[in-house]
């Protein structure tokens, strides 16, 4: 069988979605005879082939304000790649122009007596994270201080834009064969969009890689921590929707006797601002995006508490990687963190409240060893990548069995699920 993923969120410095796709490709290669195709935007057109794999790059411009993320603008090229490779299953990780190419590919198959399955994974809550939140932030910062009337108008326009985004996302998911959510909370969010039958398939973690035994005192020292320091860690996109600047505010409110140190790891539009803050904040260390997963695992295990202030997480992959590494989590009571941090595994507080986050860090610090042991056991019980993909493949198999026409590889005798 041939699987295809299409996403804009796969590049040299992307996060959870890249990890998910890399792990899916690994699973298919190790456990099946299936093939995997990945279509992503790139600086230029190109293709990289491997054993039963191909990665197709389509020349695309950078997103405004981004240095690595690109946006598809040529759905015809996506369609041509799909027609040439003839996948049986297409999974959408981006919801802009890519779905139109996928639907066109499916219709073309149906015109010839074949069919395929199109799945859509709810990796990102677009309406909240990239429409509502930025517009409300702009209104609060630039409009409200000057005019109450204009602020009211701006809020009304924001609501209109968010409703429009939700309707579009609902249309995209509704025209696909399978809607996939990473958690019950995000399935409920899709229900708010109008998609009532989302399948819940949680993400996973590499339990051998992310392990408390990788803790390194020399690594802690290299990044400004003493043996007695309380090391806080955030790994992810450095952007407004992740609220990374609030982490710095929480750091400044911590008691000095904890000797707190904050490591922020990643890339994004706020990197320059954070780097500037670090020149005036000795306890803040802004580290580059970590391309080496082994080094990332050492960072996770060497931290004492994982912190996250972003309210729009749809799963929080870095959170379970931190938990697998034996770290308590301090975050916000919003989005996926509600599912990821049940009672006893850390503390959640209100969104955009630096003092509440600082208070919760103090609470977690006092219990971090016991919480860390519980967090590791929790992840061992509930999250593993092979379990993720067994569930995912089972959902797709069910959909394929319900088709009235053969899929492309079945027509040619190449159907195999291992």
CATH top level of the largest domain?
Alpha Beta
What is the level-2 CATH architecture name of the largest domain? 3-Layer(aba) Sandwich
Strand content: 15-25%
Contiguous low-pLDDT stretches (5 residues minimum) are 129-135, 414-418
Plain-language structure description:
This protein is an alpha/beta fold. It folds into 2 domains: 2-204 and 385-411, Glycogen Phosphorylase B (Rossmann fold), CATH 3.40.50.2000; 212-382, Rossmann fold (3-Layer(aba) Sandwich). It is 46% helix and 16% strand. The protein is built from 16 helices and 14 strands. The chain has helices spanning 16-31, 75-85, 98-111, 126-143, 148-174, 184-193, 217-222, 244-252, 271-280, 293-302, 317-324, 337-340, 354-366, 368-382, 385-401, 408-411, and strands spanning 2-6, 35-42, 46-50, 53-59, 89-92, 117-121, 178-181, 199-200, 230-235, 260-265, 284-287, 305-307, 329-332, 346-349. Strands 3-4-2-1-5-6-7-8 form an 8-stranded mixed sheet, sandwiched between helices. The chain has a 6-stranded parallel sheet with strand order 11-10-9-12-13-14, sandwiched between helices. α12 links the parallel β13 (329-332) and β14 (346-349). α2 (75-85) crosses α3, α4 packs antiparallel against α5 (148-174) and α8 packs across α13. The chain is elongated and about 70 Å long. Residues 129-135 and 414-418 have low confidence and may be disordered.
């Amino acid at each position: 069988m041939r699987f295809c993923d299409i996403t804009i969120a796969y590049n040299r410095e992307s996060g959870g979605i890249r990890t998910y796709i890399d792990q899916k490709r690994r699973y298919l290669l190790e456990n099946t005879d299936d093939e995997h195709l990945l279509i992503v935007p790139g600086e230029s057109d190109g293709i990289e082939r491997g054993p039963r794999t191909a990665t197709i790059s389509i020349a695309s411009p950078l997103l405004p304000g981004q240095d690595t993320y690109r946006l598809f603008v040529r759905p015809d090229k996506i369609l041509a790649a799909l027609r040439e490779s003839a996948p049986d299953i297409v999974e959408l990780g981006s919801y802009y122009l890519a779905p139109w190419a996928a639907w066109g590919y499916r219709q073309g198959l149906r015109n010839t007596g074949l069919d395929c399955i199109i799945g859509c994974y709810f990796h990102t809550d677009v309406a909240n994270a990239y429409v509502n939140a930025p517009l409300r932030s702009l209104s609060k910062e630039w409009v409200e201080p000057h005019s109450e009337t204009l602020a009211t108008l701006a809020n009304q326009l924001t609501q209109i834009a968010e409703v429009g985004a939700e309707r579009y996302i609902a249309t995209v998911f509704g025209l696909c064969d399978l809607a996939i959510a990473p958690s019950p909370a995000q399935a409920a969010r899709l229900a708010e969009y109008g998609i009532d039958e989302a399948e819940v398939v949680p993400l996973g973690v590499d339990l051998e890689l992310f392990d408390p035994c990788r803790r390194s005192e020399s690594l802690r020292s290299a990044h400004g921590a003493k043996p007695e320091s309380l090391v806080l860690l955030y790994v992810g996109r450095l952007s407004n929707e992740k609220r990374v600047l609030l982490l710095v505010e929480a750091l400044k409110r911590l008691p000095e006797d904890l000797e707190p140190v904050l490591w922020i790891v990643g890339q994004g539009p706020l990197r320059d601002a954070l780097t500037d803050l670090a020149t005036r904040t000795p306890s803040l260390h802004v580290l580059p995006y970590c391309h080496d997963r082994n080094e990332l695992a050492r960072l996770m295990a060497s931290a004492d508490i994982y912190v996250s202030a972003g309210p729009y997480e749809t799963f929080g992959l870095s959170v379970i990687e931190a938990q697998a590494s034996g770290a308590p989590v301090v975050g916000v009571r919003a989005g996926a963190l509600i599912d990821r941090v049940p009672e006893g595994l850390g503390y959640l507080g209100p969104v955009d409240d630096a003092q509440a986050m600082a208070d919760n860090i103090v609470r977690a610090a006092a219990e971090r060893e016991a919480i860390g042991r519980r967090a590791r056991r929790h992840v061992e019980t509930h999250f593993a990548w092979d379990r993720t993909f067994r569930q995912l493949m089972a959902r797709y198999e069910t959909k394929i069995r319900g088709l009235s026409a053969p899929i492309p590889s079945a027509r040619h005798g190449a159907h195999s699920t291992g």
